[in-house]
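[step 3/7] inverse_fold.run input=structure_tokens len=288
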């Protein structure tokens, strides 16, 4: 059986992975447009890895402009079964200190509907389960890897995903806190949705960079502060990936690979051929 491939989507401050061997750059076209950048493939610790910088090299794409569908489609095309997202987030809780790592297990959607976040539509209706939006097995491995590299890491937590690109107002920040969320970011929710539809495991390594703008004893979030914390901690994120990949090379025992089994509602003979052709790679066997 072919060796499973691990995908890494690098967020703000993580535009490349070091220590890869057999490096290749692969530029893909997809039915959903061009991905954020070329995929970098290689091996790390003997495991096949595919890396993609979410905002493109040089950070050119807004959170709302990231071509999420193309990015996930490309990962699927390259054989990826598990995606590790690395992301900068604001902390919404006192005890999550900038520099800490959080492995979120829930998302809350505050985007404004500007992002294409499903592969369904155009003649095929499907509804995947999303009560647990990240892969529990993958997240457990990421948590353990973070512990082992000596990071201060929080297991579980709710990531509220805002549209951006502006950071939140103080009123928003305080209201989000009253809802009990743990961290705030602008990117992970569409990725998690699309990964589920593509039957790919998804887990996040969230690096807390700031206290957003709710904390009276800390400065309000700024890009300058976010970048400074990321630069201090990017090595930790890379070490977590290095530790985790070793344990992710086996066959999956989770249900992520069967997310579409009972998800599709549309009568098969009514699904347009064009739609089947576009989605063949993602869910072909579920459409015929
Ligand atoms: C540079 S601060 C705001 C920016 O950082 C996060 O991006 P990512 O999730 O790709 O690390 C956040 O979601 C915003 O896009
Ligand atoms: N405070 C914040 N709000 C949204 N996205 C972020 N990324 C890092 N810090 C953030």
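[step 3/7] decode complete -> sequence:
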């Amino acid at each position: 059986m072919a060796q499973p491939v691990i995908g890494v989507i690098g967020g703000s401050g993580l535009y490349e992975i070091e220590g890869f061997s057999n490096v290749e750059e692969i530029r893909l076209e997809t039915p959903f447009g061009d991905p954020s950048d070329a995929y970098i493939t290689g091996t790390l610790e003997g495991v096949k890895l595919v890396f993609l910088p979410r905002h493109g090299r040089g950070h050119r794409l807004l959170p709302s402009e990231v071509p999420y569908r193309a990015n996930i489609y490309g990962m699927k095309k390259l054989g990826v079964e598990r995606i590790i997202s690395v992301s900068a987030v604001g902390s919404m809780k006192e005890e999550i200190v900038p520099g800490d790592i959080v492995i979120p297990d829930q998302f809350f959607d505050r985007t404004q509907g500007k992002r294409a976040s499903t592969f369904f539509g155009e003649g095929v209706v499907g509804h995947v389960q999303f009560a647990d939006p990240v892969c529990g097995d993958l997240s457990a491995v990421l948590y353990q890897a973070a512990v082992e590299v000596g990071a201060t890491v929080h297991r579980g937590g709710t990531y509220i995903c805002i549209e951006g690109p502006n950071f939140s107002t103080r009123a928003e920040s305080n209201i989000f806190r009253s809802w009990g969320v743990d961290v705030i970011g602008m990117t992970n929710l569409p990725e998690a949705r699309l990964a589920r539809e593509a039957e790919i495991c998804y887990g996040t390594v969230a690096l807390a960079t700031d206290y957003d703008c709710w904390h009276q004893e800390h400065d309000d979030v700024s890009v300058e502060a976010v970048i400074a914390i990321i630069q201090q901690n990017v090595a930790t994120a890379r070490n977590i990936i290095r530790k985790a990949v070793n344990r992710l090379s086996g066959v999956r025992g989770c249900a992520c690979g069967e997310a579409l089994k009972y998800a599709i509602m549309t009568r098969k003979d009514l699904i347009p051929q064009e739609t089947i052709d576009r989605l063949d790679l993602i869910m072909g066997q579920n459409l015929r």
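[step 4/7] annotate
The domain at 5-287 is CATH 3.40.50.1580 (Rossmann fold).
The first helix runs from residue 68 to 77.
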